[in-house]
Design brief:
Elements: E1 8-17, E2 20-29, H1 33-40, H2 46-49, E3 53-58, E4 69-74, E5 80-90, E6 94-101, E7 104-116, E8 119-129, H3 135-140, H4 142-162
């Protein structure tokens, strides 16, 4: 259960259709929007706040931008190598990644809005597709996956607010 003081709220519904699921989580972070975006725009930081990842590295040359590619090592739910690429990069308001996320493929986006000079609203949206054999997971797995993402976001919030 996410604590009431985590600043995290779930908005919308988990929707599933066939092999796909969509959900979002929203939280307020007591840090300037530029700082929040800068941290998120370094996917190498993912293992610091996502308990299911052990390593993320950039695999394309140059600075982060649309088209930049990454490889990461997942440890949960099973060891796996994943790949994703940046599909939207609009500092300091939008970062979107497309690729492998656990047993799913899909997109995740981070939409940032400054609430004031020192507070940022972060909306994290996931749209995932289960491979054919895992189709039943999309129908029943939305709530546990959303909860795991929410737990990770509370860790992200703690990290950013302690800097």
């Amino acid at each position: 259960m996410i604590s009431a003081d985590s600043g995290l709220t779930s908005t919308g519904h988990i929707t599933t259709e066939g092999r796909t699921m969509r959900f979002d989580n929203t939280l307020s972070i007591n840090a300037p929007v530029d700082d929040v975006f800068a941290y998120l725009a370094q996917p190498e930081n993912l293992p610091r706040w996502n308990y299911a990842l052990s390593h993320t590295e950039k695999t394309s040359p140059g600075p982060i931008s649309v088209g930049a590619t990454y490889r990461q090592t997942r440890t949960i739910p099973r060891p796996a190598e994943e790949h994703f690429r940046i599909t939207a990069y609009e500092p300091p308001k939008l970062l979107t990644m497309e690729g492998d996320f656990g047993p799913f493929t899909g997109t995740t986006s981070y939409q940032l809005t400054p609430l004031d000079r020192y507070t940022t609203r972060l909306v994290n949206v996931f749209h995932l597709t289960a491979p054919g054999a895992l189709k039943p997971i999309a129908a029943i797995g939305g709530a546990p996956v959303k909860h795991a993402v929410a737990k990770n976001l509370t860790v992200l919030k703690r990290i950013l607010e302690s800097q």
